[in-house]
Amino acid sequence: MQRELVERAQRGDRASFGILAEASIARLYAIAQLMLSDTDQAEDAVQDALILAWRDIRGLRDPERFHWWVQRILLRCVYRLAKTERRQADPRRFTAASEAIAPDSAAELADRDEIDRGFRRLKPTFRAVLVLHHYLGLSDEEAGELLGIPAGTVKSRLHRANAAMRAELEAGARQAIHVTAGSIR
């Protein structure tokens, strides 16, 4: 069924592409939201990815790989937006964590906020491997295929991403101690 839809979309059938896009949009949005932590930017990334996918669908060689292909396009859009975001980010800005089902304690909210701020300061390539591995549960091989890199590179990026995240969290903790100590005087 998917192969037929992709082939029809490659021949210019907008309705077929619409069905494919509708089937992919929830996952694409989840990936973009996890990587960007901003609803508007996630929506922009998904919209950009779907526009590029429609424009370039004739170049897709294997119709069975449509979902992987459109996810790769999304990652490029997310990288572009994340680079812009890193340049414009205000480190003091409060970043809302994903909405909780049950009310959280103040300590849990502070922890989530600190993790979110640390995550937003990471390079987009590090964000990508963390999201693909930890949140989406992809294997190193699957993440490598999606990112267009070898599995060994995914492993090394994941190691460096975890180390960078740890360093960001430690820096944030040191800054919080410094701010707290400075306000006591």
Task: Please provide a written account of the structure.
There is one protein chain. The chain is mainly alpha-helical and 185 residues long. The protein has 2 domains: 1-88, RNA polymerase sigma factor, region 2, helix turn helix motif (Rna Polymerase Sigma Factor, Chain: A); 93-185, Winged helix-like DNA-binding domain superfamily/Winged helix DNA-binding domain (Arc Repressor Mutant, subunit A, Orthogonal Bundle), CATH 1.10.10.10. 77% of the residues lie in helices and 0% in strands. It is built from 8 helices and no strands. It has helices at 2-10, 14-36, 39-56, 66-88, 106-120, 124-135, 140-147, 151-184. The relative contact order is 0.09.
